[in-house]
């Protein structure tokens, strides 16, 4: 009996062992829909399913990539073209940087419906993109196209990329950006455009970027920024504009980025004449971390920091007319400036001369060239775009203690404001030692003449 039982136990164990081996062979070899083999020259890893084909001198996207691959690495090969049938798998991360891609067919990525990250950086031969190159990537969150020598971007390149959050376009050769280029990128938070050749920022270039947090525009050639270029960037916290060609930046432009925390404007040829007043006023109210804003002109303010100029440095500057979009000016002074003028009015800046100079600025608000047909006094009395006038350069320096002691009581010594004063108020409000005796002599002479004629008329 014991021998029979031992034989039966041994047979059962052998049967179970054979069954287990058969099941393993069936799962590996015979199971329908089993794991596809890894493409040639690639290495595959499970959980998450990853296909790595990097640095294999591949010239095309390899065939046979498993459909359920979550990550596909094809970087550092020699792939030259991406066609609509290049990708037949469903993946979330696709790296193609460091290849020789020269052309991407419209719809090349349309089968990658769940793609979240696409890296096309470091493809120096990729100089042009078709408008529909990224069609279908509505779940894409990160797009890398740095160092590709891109010269232009089609106006509809980012159409319907509603999920995009990170866009890397730095170190290309972009000269300009189309209006509404980023209008569909409502969830974009990081935009990197530094290291290009961009010259201007138009009114609608950043329209739609309502969630943008970081905007890097340094190392370009930007000379002009439209006053409304940043109007949709209310959530912007970091703005880099250093190392450009900016001489001025409208203060209204910065008022639209009320959430700004870090600002870099250094290494620009800033002009700190009257055109800098609005930016200087914005800095007075802003509470941000900022780089220095070093003046390049006029010569009297070279190497000074625009942020630390005083209100008296802009005492002779007309303020922008708030009702005009063309930038025309008025001679309305701030209360502090009016008070200072009542105490320290320069002899060379009479009101009549100042009004003439203001008229010339209204006629030529953006011109640094003196019109030949204007009166000589009109063109020379008002400071040109980059140089201070003699009156402004000779502006006396008020004692700092006196200036701030009277702060808030400026109007106590002023009977009327500049443009509201009656004719001749200059001589009454600011009499000089030489003009007062002359005025009294004239009155005495006039009175004597009247008396003489009256006597002659009465007595014949």
TrEMBL record:
Pfam families: LRR_8. Its main location: membrane. Residues 268-318 form the LRRCT domain. Keywords: Cell membrane, Cell projection, Glycoprotein, Leucine-rich repeat, Lipoprotein, Membrane, Receptor, Repeat, Signal, Transmembrane, Transmembrane helix. Coiled coil: none annotated. InterPro entries: Cys-rich_flank_reg_C, Leu-rich_rpt, Leu-rich_rpt_typical-subtyp, LRR_dom_sf, LRR_TM_domain-containing, LRRNT. GO terms for molecular function: ganglioside GM1 binding; ganglioside GT1b binding. Residues 37-71 form the LRRNT domain. It is a lipid-anchor. The chain crosses the membrane at residues 438-459. GO terms for cellular component: cell projection; external side of plasma membrane; membrane raft; perikaryon. One of its GO terms (biological process) is positive regulation of Rho protein signal transduction. It comes from the Eukaryota. It is found in: Cell membrane; Cell projection; Membrane raft; Membrane. Belongs to the Nogo receptor family. PANTHER family: ANTIGEN BSP, PUTATIVE-RELATED (PTHR24369), RETICULON-4 RECEPTOR (PTHR24369:SF174). This is Reticulon 4 receptor-like 2b. It comes from Channa striata (Snakehead murrel).
